[in-house]
Amino acid sequence: MPLISSFLILIMIIAALAALFFDNLLNSIIAAGLVSLIASVLFYFLKAPDVAMTEAAIGAGLTTAIFVLALYKTERGKSE
Amino acid sequence: MKFRNFLALIIVAVFAFIIFQAFTIVPAAGEITINKFGQADLSNRTASRYINKNVNSDSKKVIYKESSNLESGSANIVTSVVANYRSFDTLGEITVLFLAAAGIAIVLNLEKSEKSRFAAKEASLILNTGIKIIFPLLLLAGAYIFIHGHLSPGGGFQGGAVIATAFLLKMLADYKFEIKEKSITLVESAAGIVFVGLGLYGLITRGSFLENFLATGTVGELFSGGTIAVIYTAIAFKVGAELTNIVKSLIEA
Fold first, then answer.
1. DSSP for residue B96
2. I want to staple B131 with a disulfide (CB 3.0 to 4.6 A). Which of B26, B41, B111, B173 is the partner?
3. Is the Cβ of B76 closer than 8 Å to some Cβ of chain A?
């Protein structure tokens, strides 16, 4: 289990850095969603399934969708 | 000023007066003692009691599907705290979510000149067909999560979020699909009224707001935990309506 956890945390750190440094904002949003998804798996490993479900449903699901919608409204819809 | 506004003002003023009165209550001498940092006796604290009492009873063994009439008959410790011991905090949380949804709706409706849906054209066949299949399943999964909130992980917030995700997918796939503003308002306010009404009924019959006044039943059965399941169902409807409203106003802005 520590091996899997450290692997996941490594991916999480990489995804968080990628979310900061990507030029394309859509890629950044997807990387941020990946951070939330891995966080929910880690919460499950830490025996907090309630928080894991909240994180997966809200952090990885709804927040990503809301960010994508906001991005579309602010930037992409007008430039095209 | 309309009569309704005047009535609302009076109700708010009365509640403000009651809350202000509650702040002026001074505890009797010796009732509350605040120790220095590091010297507090945790065995007298409420939190310690909750941790040591095996969640469902005062440090006596709880057997799944056998023990009955416990203080809070929920098999899930988190639900015990969220929807029973600390349900007043949950009421506050839901109010915060409501205010966030209301703020988003107000800001996005300010300049809603022409109707420009996010997907103002037909979505792809795969998305459309897939979501036709997955939409009722997602609703069912959300309902399962909040109905079994006192037995398994999950509960009102998670179930409500899953239901809102289902409506988000439906709105993305089908640009003709529209939820009426009125129905969201109806579901949301009805759930809020149920929550506060249960709290007031507990206040009248048992003497404290949101007291668990129903029989708690046997641990691990579907009909157990008293008001917990009812409150969590109300929370799920409220959270689902609020999150759906956020998504709807973002898509339709």
1. H
2. B173
3. yes
